[in-house]
Amino acid sequence: MSTFVDPQAVVHSGARLGDNVHIGPFAVVEHDVEIGDNTWIGPHTMVFNGTRMGRDCRVVASASIGGPPQDLKYKGEPTLLHVGDRCTIREFVTLNRATVETGKTVIGSDCLFMANSHVAHDCRVGNNVILANSVALGGHVHMDDWAIIGGTTPIHQFSHVGAHVMIGGGFRVVKDVPPFVLAGQTPLAYEGLNSIGLRRRGFTPQAIETLEKAYTLIYRSNLNVSQAVARIKTEVDQIPEIRTVLDFIAASKRGIISGRSHR
After folding, report:
1. Considering Cα of 198, then 204, then 205, then 207, what sign does the dihedral take?
2. Using CA atoms in the order 13, 16, 20, 26, what is the torsion angle rounded to 10 degrees?
3. What is residue 253's predicted lDDT score, i.e. its pLDDT?
4. How far apart are CA 132 and CA 170, in angstroms?
5. Cα–Cα distance between 140 and 99 in angstroms, integer?
6. Which helix or strand (DSSP H or E) is residue 248 part of?
7. Where do the DSSP E strands lie in 103-171?
8. So which residues are the catalytic ones?
9. How confident is the model at residue 263 (pLDDT cuts 50, 70, 90)?
10. Whether residue 13 has pLDDT greater than 60
C-alpha cells in the first residue's frame, strides 16, 4: 500500500516518510523528520524537526512528538528524538527531543505511552516500557526494559528506574528504583519482588528465589546497602540477574529507594 497524507495535513517536502505511512487530518510534520514504514500519525498531531520514528508505530491523536526541550539553557540547537518500532502513543502525549548535553532523547521499541504522559529531554527509555496516564519523566531519566509506571506518577530528573520494575500509581520517584521490584508508598519504598511480572516473562523459579534472597538482605536484614551488597557477593548465587542488581546499585548516583516502613 502507498503512503497516505490527508489533504488537510501539512507535511514538509523535506520529511522522509516510509511505505504505507498514514498522516491524518490537521497533522503537521516538519522538515527534518523520518517516519518508518506502516506508522500511523493521527489527527492534530505535531511532529517536530529532529524526530526519528520507527516502523509500525501508532500515534492516536493530538500528540506532540519531538518538541523542543523545556529547558531554559536550550537555545534552539539541532537535537534529536529517536522512537523505536511498534510504539503506541496516545492522546496528548509529549515526547521532547534532547538538549545539546546528550543530543538525543531515546525511546525503545514496543512501548505504550498512555494519554497525557510526558518524556522530557535527554531521557533514555528502554523496550516494552509502559507509562500510564499522566506519568511525567523529568529530564535525563533512565528507564530500563519492561518497566511499568502507574498513573500520575512524576519521576525526578536524573533518576534511574531498573528493568522489570512496577511502580504504583500516584507516587513520587525521587531516588533510583532497583530492578525486578515493586515500589509504592510515600515516600516511595520497596514493597517486594515483582514476582508475577517476572513469571509472566519467563524467569525461572530459581532466579526469582535468588532475587528474593538478595532483596531480603538489602531491605529486611537491618543492614546498610554496602553491608548488604557485601553479603550478596558472598552468600548469594551470582546468576546474571544478581549481577544486574549489583551493577545497578554500584552505578546509582541518587541512591536507591528505602525499605517499606511499618508505621
Report:
1. negative
2. -50
3. 95
4. 10
5. 10
6. helix 240-251
7. 104-107, 112-113, 118-119, 124-125, 130-131, 136-137, 142-143, 148-149, 154-155, 160-161, 166-167
8. 121-122, 139
9. very low
10. yes
State pLDDT tens for residues 209-262.
Answer: 999 999 999 999 999 999 999 999 999 999 999 999 999 999 999 999 999 755
Residue 225 CA to residue 255 CA, distance in Å, equals 9
Cell of 92: 496528548
Mean pLDDT of all residues in 142-162: 98
The per-residue pLDDT for 261 is: 58
Topology, domain 198-259: Udp N-acetylglucosamine O-acyltransferase; Domain 2 (1.20.1180)
Domain boundaries, the chain: 4-140, 198-259
Query: Three cell numbers at 244?
Result: 544486574
Helix (H, G, I), strand (E, B) or coil at 191: strand
Hey, what CATH class is 4-140 in? Answer: mainly beta
Please give the C-alpha separations between residue 108 and each of 87, 130, 170, 238, in angstroms, as whole numbers: 8, 11, 24, 28
d(CA 198, CA 27): 39
**pTM for this structure?**
0.96
Contact 67, 50 (CB under 8 A): no
C-alpha cell at 21: 505511512
pLDDT in tens, 15-27: 999 999 999 999 9
Cell numbers linked to 95: 515526547
Predicted local distance difference test score (pLDDT) of residue 204: 98
CA angle 85, 91, 97 (to 5 degrees): 55
Q: State the pLDDT at residue 260.
A: 72
